[in-house]
Design brief:
Helices cover about 15% and strands about 45% of the residues. With about 950 residues, the protein is an alpha+beta fold. A hairpin with a 4-residue loop joins strand 13 and strand 14. Helix 10 packs across helix 11. The protein is globular and about 95 Å long.
């Protein structure tokens, strides 16, 4: 009985939602094709047949051979290949059920390893599909039957937490390949950092994160718990947990309870056991290492977690490098004589790689196409050291990596076209549109280009092929390349030159360290550092080796002696940290044994294919009368979308029980073309008490609307630009009654113009708001016939920096005007001075000043209920000038808002807070006390 009551409570929390945002992220010019089997339906642009076939083959093999650790249930899933995006990502969504791949490999290869990104996406994301498939049991399955995908998605947040989903998927990619993320030292770096610092954190903090400390993401957190449970309690333990959780065994905290049922441990206890076991392994590994003697050169250890990367020593021996922090967006920093100076801000990036000559630094910044969210470009940006000026070298290109030669005359650009084929181009800095294309290795991913300072005719880079990496030397004058290293199943990244050697970062012995490669082509590699957590971004000067040394606070510049007689050749080493992986029955590289399948290709109909009902249900609202809760309204709804996000339909029927009346309507959106088209109709039958006369007014309201919308978004350097302009026509019949006379019931037309624009500076992790920017909004509505309806609403926000790095000042003004003599009054949404509320306004103007700042980072909570990461303060002052027919007055208030950034039930990030305010006297408004207190939710 308890289970049924809880289930009904969950269903009661669901709300009918309009269809997912329709902004078709792909341009209409793409010609979509589809292949299909009983496991997947892969939708892809023309020209990507080979990649689609590969994804289909990998998925078919996994579904047939590799499901014992998760369960045998398999739902067919549509998969979309978004090939024009530069985003490196993938996801499985429930509404509508689909997976989307973004196949541009992550530019930081140290975080992804040498595996083929398409293969990793197929393995990782399909594991999420299998998780969802095997969650479709018990009460979760009943939810899907009764509500479709909306309810199914909501309930799975309780029965399949994200840390498990991602940890299990990383475990799968690690078992099925030779170099999944679970084998990369960088993946466990933050965990090993706080082990080495002898720090321990609670389960709640490790799961929910921190604004103060560098915590592992849900990926390594979930992987560590997943690995330990499989090792200790059987390879199928998570299949059992998933099944029990979705049957709601037990009813409260079903996932943690299911872990308890199958392991004897709660989730928090499993975390402690898993981390204690991993800490023991790390300590054992470090006991056998002789660590390098290090001197710290520079690092910001006081203000927040911070990172240094990509160093370059100038001719005057000063240091230039990339710097970022929890309280700072990325900058190019200059260090000399013990002090630092910010030279320029670095804009939005997917790839943090920076290349240098003695005159200039160059890097790549993001440049999304304004209308189509899945179409991306990049900018090539430089900073001139002599002029101290940031310049744009190239725009609207698809540059993956870029390097500048020592003479500052040429650029080596790794680029790719719309078919994801890589090319290597040498461009002239003075005329960057001119280029010479080199014969790059075919069918391979190219990264980390660097010119040899001793011979700028020699270009070095690393390539990925067949799940391995190697270093390549390319003679530009002869356009000839050769491999100069062995093939590695490790990530080899972040190159630099020193004393005729190629220095780089790699994790050959289970910890990222600095290595040197002899350029002779004999493949001789030597280890130069030995650190407890990780070393990266090497550079040399004099007789010293410099690199970024990682700890629990981020990374610092350190130096150690560079002596050739101390070189230690790299030898094959058994890595005990990864031994447990070899014991599992699923372990083994599947990529070399997957048979390539042939599929029938057909044209994908973008109007009808994939357009189906995905969610439906019945929801209600309640009122309390005579001490009893009664149903006030009920709504039956139905949602339809296509998987490409081009169009969607919402249909609803409403019943008003108190009034004994009905309502119904629909909203349709079509977003395939540059403007988005909207069409909707709503009918509302009403029966309400009249203001005077002790009588009931019965009337109908009808509204038909059509409109267009144009959303735009792009990035330039350190600012994000967003705009949205829309125009609607509405046909309204506000009142239609056969019983009453003298009420306005004429049909009329109304047009509405809405516009918004914002330009906001990039924010750092700890920032409470943008430190610079502005936004403006305007909404104008007017009837086609004079004197019926007209209203104007505008608002303006200005964002300014505060005293501290994480402080901010926001100035806001709002204006609204609507004549009370109009026959039809539009909805009043004027925001008063806080602490006041007055209806029936003809016009109003409000100014607000808000000074926001973080107060505390408590990292504290009540286990399973709430976890508070930050407490913010907002000092406010409001001034409002309003007028009605016989009123023209001012309202003023000021006070403090305390806001708690908290995670509820380990699931939902819902800020809550309390407002303490003081109302200044007003001759027209009476209130008991000038002081007021209000609860805030979601601010």
């Amino acid at each position: 009985m308890k289970k049924i009551l809880f289930f009904l409570l969950i269903l009661g929390a669901f709300r009918a939602q309009s269809q997912a945002s329709i902004e078709s992220a792909n341009p209409p010019s793409l010609k979509w094709r589809v292949i299909e089997n009983n496991k997947s339906k892969i939708v892809f642009p023309e020209g990507f047949e080979k990649e689609a076939f590969r994804v289909g083959s990998v998925i078919d093999y996994i579904a047939r051979e590799k499901t014992e650790s998760i369960g045998s249930r398999v739902l067919q899933v549509p998969i979309i290949l978004n090939t024009l995006s530069l985003e490196s990502n993938g996801f499985v969504a429930s509404v509508p059920f689909r997976s989307e791949f973004y196949p541009q490999t992550i530019p930081d290869w140290n975080n992804v390893g040498p595996s083929n990104w398409f293969d990793l996406l197929a393995i990782h994301e399909y594991r999420h599909v299998l998780q969802a498939s095997n969650s479709d049991v018990g009460l979760t399955h009943l939810t899907r039957i009764l509500t479709g995908r909306n309810g199914w998605s909501t309930i799975q947040a309780v029965t399949r937490p994200s840390w498990f989903s991602e940890g299990d998927a990383v475990m799968t990619e690690t078992l099925f390949t030779e170099s999944g993320r679970g084998r990369l030292p960088s993946f466990s770096m933050s965990q090993r950092a706080f082990f080495y610092a002898q720090k321990q954190f609670s389960y709640a903090k490790a799961r929910n994160g921190s604004y103060k400390n560098q915590m592992p993401s849900i990926y390594p957190f979930g992987y560590r718990l997943n690995l330990y449970a499989r090792t200790q309690f059987g390879e199928d333990v998570w299949a059992k947990v998933l099944r029990n959780a979705n049957r709601f065994e037990p009813i409260l905290y079903p996932f943690s309870g299911a872990i308890k049922k199958n392991t004897g441990l709660r989730a928090s206890q499993l975390y402690k056991a898993a981390y204690k076991d991993f800490e023991r392994q790390v300590e054992t590994d470090l006991e056998s290492r002789k660590l390098s003697i290090l001197d710290t050169l520079w690092g910001d250890t006081k203000s927040s977690v911070s990172y240094v990367s990509y160093p370059h020593f100038m001719k005057d021996e000063s240091l230039v490098f990339r710097f970022s922090a929890y309280n700072r967006t990325p900058v190019l920093m200059h260090f000399e004589n013990g002090s630092t100076e910010e030279w320029t801000k670095i804009g939005f990036q997917d790839n943090p790689y920076v290349s240098y000559s003695d005159d200039m630094a160059v890097w790549v910044e993001s440049q999304p196409q304004a209308r189509w969210g899945n179409v991306d470009f990049t900018r090539l940006v430089g900073f001139d050291f002599r002029k101290r000026k940031k310049v744009e070298i190239l725009a609207k290109k698809r540059i993956y990596f870029a390097a500048i030669d020592p003479s500052s005359q040429h650029l080596a650009c790794v680029e790719f076209d719309s078919t994801q084929h890589y090319s290597l181009k040498i461009r002239e800095l003075e005329n960057p549109e001119s280029f010479k294309q080199l014969h790059a290795p075919a069918h391979e991913t190219i990264g980390y280009p660097i010119f040899d300072p001793a011979d700028q005719n020699q270009l070095y880079y690393t390539i990925k092929f067949d799940g391995k990496q190697a270093w390549i030397r390319h003679d530009i004058s002869q356009d000839r390349s050769e491999r100069i290293s062995d093939w590695y199943t490790f990530a080899v990244v972040e190159p630099s030159f020193f004393k005729g050697l190629l220095l780089f970062r790699a994790g050959f012995d289970g910890i990222d360290n600095i290595y040197a490669l002899d350029k002779s082509g004999k493949g001789l590699v030597y280890r130069l550092s030995a650190v407890p957590v990780a070393a990266g971004f090497p550079a040399g000067k004099g007789d010293s080796l410099y690199f970024a040394n990682y700890d629990m606070h981020g990374s610092r510049w350190v130096r150690t002696a560079f002596q050739t007689e101390n070189f230690q050749p790299v030898a094959a080493k058994d890595l005990p940290l990864y031994k447990p992986l070899l014991t599992f029955s699923e372990a083994g590289n599947i990529l070399d044994s997957i048979p390539e399948k042939d599929y029938t290709i057909r044209k994908y109909n973008t109007l009808f294919d994939g357009f189906k009902v995905h969610s439906y249900g019945l929801v209600s609202s309640f009122s309390k009368a005579s001490g009893n809760f009664t149903v006030n309204t009920a709504q039956a709804y139905l949602l339809m979308n296509d998987i490409l996000g081009r169009h969607g339909l919402t249909v609803h029927y409403d019943r008003y029980f108190n009034e004994k009346e009905n309502g119904y309507g629909f909203d349709y959106t079509y977003g395939r073309f540059f403007p988005i088209f909207h069409l909707g109709y709503n009918f509302r039958g009403r029966s309400i008490e009249a203001n005077r006369g002790n009588r009931i007014l019965r009337f109908d309201e009808q509204e038909l609307q059509a409109g267009v919308e144009v959303p735009l978004y792009t990035l330039k350097h350190n600012f994000a630009y967003r705009s949205n302009f829309s125009a609607f026509w509405k046909g309204l019949q506000p009142f239609q009654s056969s019983e009453q006379r003298g009420i306005f019931s004429d049909k009329f037309g109304l047009y509405q113009m809405i516009g918004s624009f914002s330009v906001l500076r990039q924010t750092a992790y700890q920032h409470v708001q943008p430190r610079l920017g502005a936004s403006v909004y305007a909404n104008y509505q007017k009837s086609l016939q004079a004197g019926i309806a007209e209203k104007l609403t505008t608002s303006l926000n200005a964002y300014l920096p505060g005293i501290g790095r994480n402080h901010g000042l926001r100035l806001n003004t709002v204006y609204q005007e609507e004549s009370l003599l109009n026959l039809y009054q539009l909805a009043d949404d004027f925001a008063f001075a806080r602490g006041f509320s007055v209806g029936g306004l003809e016009g109003g103007w409000r100014f607000s000043a808000n000074y926001q700042l973080p107060l505390l980072y408590p990292d504290w909570g009540i286990n399973g209920l709430t976890y508070i990461k930050r407490v913010r303060g907002n000092f406010f002052f409001d001034f409002a000038q309003v007028k009605a027919l016989n009123l023209d007055t001012q309202f003023k208030s000021f006070g403090l808002e305390l806001l708690f950034d908290e995670t509820a039930l380990n699931l939902y990030n819902i800020p809550i807070g309390v407002r303490f305010g003081y109302r200044l006297p007003n001759p027209h408004i009476q209130f008991d006390k000038p002081l007021f207190i209000e609860l805030l939710i979601g601010n």
